Description:
8-stranded antiparallel beta barrel, 8 strands, elongated, mainly beta, single chain
Amino acid sequence: xxxxxxxxxxxxxxxxxxxxxxxxxxxxxxxxxxxxxxxxxxxxxxxxxxxxxxxxxxxxxxxxxxxxxxxxxxxxxxxxxxxxxxxxxxxxxxxxxxxxxxxxxxxxxxxxxxxxxxxxxxxxxxxxxxxxxxxxxxxxxxxxxxxxxxxxxxxxxxxxxxxxxxxxxxxxxxxxxxxxxxxxxxx
Length: 187
């Protein structure tokens, strides 16, 4: 009896394997890099006020592997200048590299992780006209986690609206200690 059950299970498994083999498409050519899956974009920002100013330029290039996954890399340049209540003026500059991974759980909604390494430098100018204090240059890691929407704008273009947060919270992070909103564009 055990032999008959074993033979029946073996025959059933063989038929299932044969059925699945027939459903799989036959690969005629090896998969290659597809230029149409590349996208370019990033963020650009300017802000000017009586006590603050900022400039943000961070172009990125990515590759859409399929409808659910994309990844890429970019460069960062950020400059911030602000005066506090005691009239000390702090200027900070950042330049660095980032990589990112995106998951699209449903169309037009994305989750993103973006590790970065930026080099930071700057100075503090005191109101008593003493020479500015140079801040020691240092590398500052960041890990941005967030999500948002990719709103199609025709063709392969999309407007990206995201809420992000730097989970590492390094003292000289260019992102501060609160969640922040970004708007970018991919083409």
